[in-house]
Amino acid sequence: MGELLRRYWHPFAAVAEVDELGIKPVRLLGENLVAFKSKNGSYGLIDRQCPHRRADMLNGIIEDDGLRCSYHGWCFASSGQCLEQPFEDIANPKARFKDKIRTKAYPVEAKAGMLWAYMGPQPAPLVPNWEPFTWSNGFQQIVFADVPCNWFQCQENSCDPVHFEWMHRNWTSVLKGDGSYGPTHLELAFEEFEFGHIYKRVREDTDKDNPHWTVGATALWPNAFFLGDHIEWRVPVDDENTLSVTWMFHRVPADREPFVQERIPYWTGPVKDEKGEWITSHVMNQDIVAWVGQGTIADRTQEHLGKSDWGIVMMRRSFEANMKLVEAGEGDPKAVIRDAEFNKCVELPIKHKELFTASMTLEESRRLGDTLQYRINRPDYQHQVGQPEAVKREYQIAMGMIPEDATETI
Ligand code: FES
Ligand SMILES: [Fe+2]
Q1: For residue 182, what are the domain limits?
Q2: Where would I find the Rieske domain in this sequence (predicted)?
Q3: How many separate domains does the chain show?
Q4: Which CATH number characterizes residue 36's domain?
């Protein structure tokens, strides 16, 4: 599985985060690394330990074109090449020992406010330019959560329509004590396509003319859930930990156009409260509760799958097939993009696209959202707990909910 995942780019940090920190520890696909931004503006992702005598590069010194180990001053470019070894360069310059030293390094690219890493064989494919990344006039934010379980059970949740009814609708009612249950699912369909798996559904309150059926939702290959205005990645930290990364887009109201975001804010939400209990108040937190509840690595031998799980069966088969393909060296696996022209805008099925792209007042977007049963553009971040006040303020100003000079949010 790791070999397959290494054929894809993975978002691992926010651009603004590494811009501010300079150096950030990163654990990705079971490897300990450091991300850094050189003074010349380029990003790097290299081995956490220095190849000299294993000092921690997190304590490194940022240079014009790389990161210098603070123990004995060896300096490394983002390519991993050693550029300088201060004492060796003086003591034995002719040996050019530095030319023989290279630390482990992976390519990094910035896109949609996130830094992406590619940890597989060269040549690297392109970072997918999913259509929503091309939209304008949007307030974007990057939201993280550290999830202590394997990524794959998180991703299986991306192709699991019935959990919306129970976990997000009915369980929320139970937790709030209001006793009402939501409309039940009557029919499901699952399809595989070039970039993942789509599920479609009919509930008691919807029919086959509804976008829930005509468009559906996408489990985006290999490890994301695609919903148009937001994409959630389940990024494998190692076998027992996942970094949840959400890219969120809010179309600003017509009177706030043109809107250009200089810096895309980021934040990490908690998964447990101060008493150490799992947080269940928001949709993403409920999902996290489900994922970790399945065990650190869910034991599939003890499952009993039904018709609602057909999408998960399809996904598992696709992973099997693609792992075999990579093992056999038979070319690119599913959804690898190498065509730059095609990658200018990779379209995916999007429900309620007008809500995210059309020029409307705030009230119009909310009204249309309510009509479409997609609650949108509220003052609070709806999906995950813990949005910092500063990000909330930035969002509310961008959306015209509070004036530019407001010190308090609503
Ligand atoms: S351990 Fe890094 S320079 Fe010596
Ligand atoms: Fe969910």
Answers
A1: 131-399
A2: 9-117
A3: 2
A4: 2.102.10.10
